[in-house]
Amino acid sequence: MNAKTVAIIGAGPVGLAAAAHVLERGMSPIVLEAGPEAAHAIRQWQHVQLFSPWEYNIDKAAARLLAPTGWNSPDPQSYPTGGELIDRYLTPLATRTPLRETIRTSSRVTAISRAGFDKATTKGRDRAPFEIRYQNGRGPEVLRADAVIDVSGTWFSPNPAGSNGLPAIGERERADRIAYGMPDVRGTDRARYAGKIVAVLGAGHSAVGTLIDLAQLAGEVPGTQAIWLLRGADPAKAFGGGRNDKLAARGELGSAFAALVTAGKIRVESQFGVTHLSESEGRLRISTGSGSGARSVVADELVVATGFRPDLSFLSELRLRLDPAIEAPVALAPLIDPNEHSCGTVRPHGARELAHDEPGFYLAGMKSYGRAPTFLMMTGYEQVRSIAADIAGDKKAAARVELVLPETGVCTRGGVESASAVGCCGGPAQEETSACCAADEKARKAGRAGCGC
């Protein structure tokens, strides 16, 4: 029996899956969750329908834990909301299986180091246990573990409105008129947005979903107007792969959005990199540029849906190897860097790509993607399956790929987009290469930089 203790930071879907795999390997997981209950981050967007069906949202080890409890697996082809994901899967997993004994809620991790070693000390470091400090209602606590999997996500560290990565000038002072992520504009937040002019900044799925909801709200409540603030020049890049997307709901989301934009239901302001936020007769003036090139729009509310970034503050005493731009592990970054290519679908990867110079420490889940988008839950499940095997010493299983990901129908290379009826860039990569898809793999094998799309 392997008696290793594995600290898992975060009790979201991937964190709970990590605990299930660790437990299945005969090790002892301890899950530290900052929120008052498991899946705390998902509870912030539980109104949102996922664009992946149930078959892609349930981890296999977690399902094996649930089976003896009498749990009824949902229809694999139906699409859950965030709330249904919690009620029908995550809550039973956290409360009705042996995982309930491993989860410590309201336990926010504040720092991680090696017991007796600061970051600069090398000799003997790899044999020292990790020391995890966390804060709960009783005060500061200390936990020691043989390995750490950080799956704390990025939801609570959204990117600011400023196009330079910093808060726009005046952003903090106008916080009462700004929401981040994907507010429930037709549900719990309806009163805030109904009959208002609402600007939405961003071009990802959160921005698209919010704009669609606002357009529907406009049909129900006169005076509601949606303004799309787009940093780029081409709105069509947000429309996705349409019918070529193997996740049908994701393709339909882009197609529905394209129809609304084409019909003029959503006002589009492209090449709009926000620089300033100010008051304008009781409303919010959102500005871009300066001098003769300055432009502005006036709205009642602003939704900032510009993505997220990892909180690395409590990892400062660990030896991390992160890409300087994406803030993802260096071996993973080339697969997900949106400056180079993004097939939406990234080749399955695991412990090898997610390890650092700190043996036994891994970033996984959304946090492993750093500032890059397009993370899929099933990617996280494959990550933690591999990591648990690696920690247990099963290097063969850790290196094995046990996942085939659906394709988006869209691939980008250097900002240029193309669609293919056979899927993203000719299908997924087949071998252990640093490639996101088949054409990328072929290009790299021929000695080219990629991506071959």
What's the layout of helices and strands?
Layout: E1 5-9, H1 13-24, E2 28-32, H2 60-66, H3 82-95, E3 103-104, E4 108-114, E5 130-136, E6 139-145, E7 147-150, E8 178-180, H4 190-193, E9 197-201, H5 205-220, E10 225-229, H6 248-262, E11 267-269, E12 274-280, E13 283-288, E14 295-299, E15 301-304, H7 333-336, E16 341-342, H8 351-354, E17 361-363, H9 377-391, H10 395-399, E18 410-413, E19 416-419, H11 438-445
Parallel strand pairs: 1-2, 1-7, 2-3, 7-17, 8-15, 9-10, 9-15, 10-11
Antiparallel strand pairs: 4-5, 5-6, 12-13, 13-14, 16-18, 18-19
Any low-confidence stretches, pLDDT <50, length ≥5? 409-426, 449-453
Q: Describe the largest sheet.
A: 5 strands, parallel
Task: Provide the helix percentage.
Answer: 10-25%
Q: What is the number of strand segments?
A: 19
Number of helices: 11
What does this structure look like?
There is one protein chain. The chain has helices at 13-24, 60-66, 82-95, 190-193, 205-220, 248-262, 333-336, 351-354, 377-391, 395-399, 438-445; strands spanning 5-9, 28-32, 103-104, 108-114, 130-136, 139-145, 147-150, 178-180, 197-201, 225-229, 267-269, 274-280, 283-288, 295-299, 301-304, 341-342, 361-363, 410-413, 416-419. With 453 residues, the chain is of the alpha/beta class. It is 23% helix and 19% strand. The protein starts with a strand and ends in an 8-residue tail after the last helix. It is built from 11 helices and 19 strands. The strands form 5 sheets. A 5-stranded parallel sheet has the order 3-2-1-7-17, with helices on one face. The chain has a 5-stranded parallel sheet with strand order 8-15-9-10-11, with helices on one face.
